[in-house]
Write a structure and sequence with these properties.
With 218 residues, the chain is an alpha/beta fold. The chain has one domain (24-217): 3-Layer(aba) Sandwich (Rossmann fold). The chain is 58% helix and 14% strand. The chain has helices at residues 2-6, 9-12, 16-20, 38-48, 56-65, 72-80, 87-104, 120-129, 146-160, 167-190, 203-217, and strands spanning 26-32, 52-55, 110-114, 135-143, 194-198. Strands 2-3-1-4-5 form a five-stranded parallel sheet, with helices on both faces. Helix 4 packs across helix 11 and helix 5 crosses helix 6 (72-80). The longest helix is centred in the last third of the chain and has 24 residues, at 167-190. The structure holds P1-(adenosine-5'-P5-(uridine-5')pentaphosphate and magnesium ion. Residues 32, 34-40, 55-57, 60, 78-79, 82-85, 90, 115-116, 118, 122, 152-153, 156, 164, 173, 202-203, 206 line the site of P1-(adenosine-5'-P5-(uridine-5')pentaphosphate.
Amino acid sequence: MICRLFGSVSQKVPSVLYWSSLMKPQVVFVLGGPGAGKGTQCSKIVENFNYTHLSAGDLLRAERAREGSEFGQLIANYIKEGKIVPVEITINLIRKAMEETMQRDEKKFRFLIDGFPRNEDNLQGWRDVMEERADVKFVLFFDCGNKVCIDRCLERGKSSGRTDDNRESLEKRIQTYLQSTRPIIDLYQTHGKVRTVDAARCVDEVFADVKTILDKEG
Ligand code: UP5
Ligand code: MG
């Protein structure tokens, strides 16, 4: 599949050998419903800990906006419909962003990957491309009820300009989250790899718990 979309993908993806010359990236996956506060909390983590924040959604929105992108229209459609973009696109954006970060500063090898993996396809893509190149430490799960999530995104939608911060898209985003993303969180849970935070509280209360987790886990 990766080869199908990217043609000569082997030329574009640096080898495992190349990555092994760098510090092995340490990854925390950050998951939770739309509007659970993933991005907000990641910004606070970056202020307090030595992590680089990569939002898969932000990377896709940047690719959507990039002039000449062959995937721009596809990404736009998927985001508006609250559907999950094929992993061949997302994983290459994530890999490239990680690589660029570490090339700029080799001490920057700790990553928060926000909003990924969201479904089985994402997880398989990670395994295919990144499993040997990076260690997943744990999943930071922002647990928040659907109504709170929707209300936050609708409020943000008054000024965000995001094409998916409207009630119709939000209903779809929530369905996608429940059907596709929750099972991924559950899967990591069975391996004891999920750290759950009650995300329905105010930003500082949520962050106090996040800080406790990161102080402990590094
Ligand atoms: N806010 C935050 N925390 C608050 C708190 N504790 N109390 C009160 N308000 C709080 O926060 C959302 C809003 O709530 C903000 O206004 C904030 O101030 C307020 P934010 O921190 O942005 O929440 P976040 O969880 O990051 O919400 P986001 O909308 O970004 O979540 P999504 O997961 O829906 O969006 P994402 O950008 O990750 O993905 C968008 C779309 O991209 C997906 O639907 C999908 O179509 C596509 N996508 C893929 O296909 N694949 C991927 O791998 C990733 C994305
Ligand atoms: Mg976000």
